[in-house]
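Record 4Fe-4S ferredoxin, 437 aa.
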Amino acid sequence: MTTDTLSPVAVPSPPLPRLSASELLDLARACGADDCGLASIDDPSLAEDRPYILASFPKARTLLVLVGRMHREPVRSPARSVANLEFHRSGDHIDEVARGIVRALEDRGIRALNPAMAFPMEMDNFPDRAWIVSHKRAAEAAGLGRMGIHRSVIHPRFGSFILLGTVLIAAEVDAVATPLEHNPCLECKLCVAACPVGAIKPDGAFDFSACLTHNYQQFMGGFVNFVEDIAEAKSAKDLRGRMSYAETVTRWQSLSYGPNYNAAYCLAVCPAGHDVIGPYLADRKQHVADVLEPLTRKTEPVYVVPGSDAADYVARRFQHKKIRFVRSSARATSIRGFLQGMRLTFQPGKSKGLDASYHFTFTGAEPAEATVTIRDRRLTVQPGHVGKADLAITADATNWLRFLAKEISVPRLILTRSLRLKGPVRLMAAFGKCFPS
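=>
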């Protein structure tokens, strides 16, 4: 008697449906989108996002990007409660639009997923990437605008007064958009003048850490520092010396009613966009008087890290604003995060006169090698050891992260042989000045 062995037969997955681009865009508009566009998951500009998109929705093939128009005057108001209400309600609307699209597609048997336009996000590995898809990159790919020097997308009609969302669809479409050939950004530099911490530079550079520390002070990394301030305080009196009564209530408001941004001045003053630009072209001085000056004249706390370029900028440019020294909201919790984050936290003004190459060697839990070069107020970070180092730094990975968190000092690291230096020690101090925390 013989027994036949049956091998499992691979059943091919049914082909993904192919949808009409025009029908999808009509659906998005019917659900309430002010504008919309389509991009392919295989668009080269979305290469960084693709792994995160597919991890959350493996069948995703098409991105339907949504634009929601914000009302201009609330965003321009020096009263932050008014501006934040507009952000929250506009964001809720975009999420509802996306949800309506997903429901309509689901009713047709088409799978789709709508990541949040902002919060909540995937915070498990914070401060590493928390978002599933970069709506800004997706919007550029879908031909809905281009990023200006303020790092926000400028829509050709609505300008900077927009919020974005994306629906991921498990279907191909018969046509996708192409990016805009022109950038609506006027390079008028009003956003440079408006930023309370000087995060936007006239040459187009951007100080990410300055923006993060001030604008997001009431949540994310700023909230972590708030909790640690409470833990470290010896008494209620000591805590009141660290933060004002109003600041504590402001944090409660952020927790209760949604994250409150301290500034969106770069968006508020931007005159770009067909529907926005008229008054600016008619009378530029009046635009400055009506929109820019109320924001720059406002007396308010400005959150900066001691020893940072932002601290110098506020003291020089906005002497009537109250400087509030805080710990940096950009904190590395891994060696990978430290090496990648240096580009975001580097302070060019503090590197004046420094010309040095550093070889980092991390051992232990997270081994890694990197070369960091600081020259002409510019920073480069390369994997591995490249060329000859002026200072070689060998450190245990776990203890280096404890040092960054101010849990252990350099002398202690050296005594325990968790840190070894080869080269002029002064270069270690010069390096530290470029990354105040």
